[in-house]
Specification:
Largest sheet: 7 strands, mixed
Strand content: 15-25%
Low-confidence stretches: 1-6
Order of helices and strands: EHHEEHHEEHEHEHHEEEEEHHH
Length: about 290
C-alpha cells in the first residue's frame, strides 16, 4: 500500500464537510479521504482505518463506485483506489452545471407569470456587484445609471463591452470626470447637478435600469444591500430617477448661477427644508454649507 502524508485533524474535518456539501454521506466522505491517503485498500481495511462499520463500508464503496469517485482495481479480495480529485471534481462540476442549466429551464416553465412582480434582496458586496454585472451583460438596448465614479469604475470593463455591442447609456455621475465613462457616442454622461458632488446619504445608492425591463439599486456604503426586480412600476420609478437627474444636470449647466442665487449653492434651501436630520448632517459635512 502507498501511504500519503495525513492532513491535520482540522483540515480533514474541512475536507469531509466540503464533500458532504457535494452530496457525499458521512461514510462516503470518510472512505474517499482515506483512500486518497492509502490506496489500494480492501473494504475490510477501509472499515478498520475509518471506523465505518463493515456493512456500511461495502454499501458506501458501491455508491462511490457508481459515481466514479473510487475504482476497484483487483479481485479476491476487491481492492479500491480513489479517483484523482481534480479529474473527479471537474467531472462533477460539468455534470452539475449541465443539470442546473437543464433543470432551471424546466422549472422556469412552472413559475407563474407574476414572478416579475417580486423584489429580490441581495446581501453582501460580491452578490450585489455580480448582479449588476449580470444586468449589464444581459442588456440589449439601453442602460440608465446613477452612481458614484469609484463604484461605477468596478464595472467599467463590463460597461465598455456593452457599449461596443451598441447599448445606449445615460449615466448620472457623482464624480469629477464624465469622460471616463464615455465609451462611445451613444454614452451620455452627466455630472450630478453639473458638479458631481454627493449631497446626502441617498447619494450613496447605485441605481441601474436595463432595457426598461429590470433594475438594481444598491446601498454600497457600509453594509452592502441590493434590490433587484423586473416589476414594471419599480423599474419605471428607477428610470424616472435617472432621467430627472439628467434634466437637472442640463438645467444646472445652463442656469446654474441663477439657481444658486435663488436657492443657495447645491439647492441648500430646498434640501434643508425636506431632509431628515441624518441627511442634513451628511449634506453639511459633504458641502461645508450651513
Amino acid at each position: 500500500m502507498v501511504g500519503k502524508i495525513a492532513p491535520s485533524d482540522s483540515a480533514a474535518s474541512e475536507f469531509l464537510a466540503d464533500l458532504k456539501r457535494l452530496g457525499f454521506t458521512e461514510y462516503e466522505a470518510r472512505i474517499y479521504v482515506q483512500l486518497l491517503r492509502q490506496s489500494p485498500s480492501t473494504a475490510y481495511e477501509i472499515s478498520k482505518s475509518t471506523g465505518v462499520p463493515r456493512p456500511n463500508a461495502y454499501s458506501a464503496l458501491e455508491a462511490l463506485s457508481q459515481r466514479a469517485a473510487v475504482l476497484p482495481v483487483s479481485e479476491n479480495p476487491v481492492r479500491y483506489v480513489a479517483a484523482d480529485p481534480q479529474t473527479f471534481l471537474n467531472s462533477v462540476s460539468r455534470q452539475t452545471s449541465a443539470l442546473c442549466k437543464d433543470l432551471g429551464a424546466k422549472l422556469s416553465d412552472l413559475a407563474p407569470a407574476t414572478k416579475d412582480q417580486y423584489v429580490w434582496m441581495l446581501w453582501g458586496e460580491e452578490a450585489a456587484h455580480d448582479k449588476i454585472d449580470a444586468l449589464i451583460n444581459g442588456s440589449l438596448h439601453t442602460l440608465l445609471i446613477k452612481a458614484a465614479s469609484d463604484i461605477l469604475r468596478r464595472h467599467k470593463d463590463t460597461l465598455r463591452t456593452a457599449a461596443e455591442r451598441g447599448v445606449e447609456m445615460m449615466i448620472v455621475l457623482f464624480g469629477t470626470d464624465a469622460e471616463e465613462f464615455r465609451f462611445s457616442d451613444k454614452c451620455r454622461v452627466y455630472l450630478h447637478e453639473a458638479n458631481g458632488v454627493r449631497m446626502g446619504t441617498t447619494d450613496n445608492l447605485f441605481t441601474i435600469a436595463a432595457d426598461h425591463e429590470e433594475m438594481v439599486t444598491a446601498a454600497v456604503v457600509g453594509e452592502v444591500i441590493a434590490a433587484h426586480t423586473r416589476n414594471k412600476l419599480v423599474v419605471n420609478m428607477a428610470e424616472s430617477l435617472v432621467r430627472h437627474d439628467f434634466y437637472m444636470a442640463e438645467i444646472f449647466e445652463r442656469f446654474g448661477d441663477q439657481i444658486d442665487a435663488a436657492f443657495g449653492e447645491h439647492l441648500r434651501d430646498l434640501r434643508l427644508a425636506c431632509f431628515t436630520p441624518e441627511q442634513v448632517a451628511s449634506f453639511k459635512q459633504r458641502t461645508g454649507l450651513s
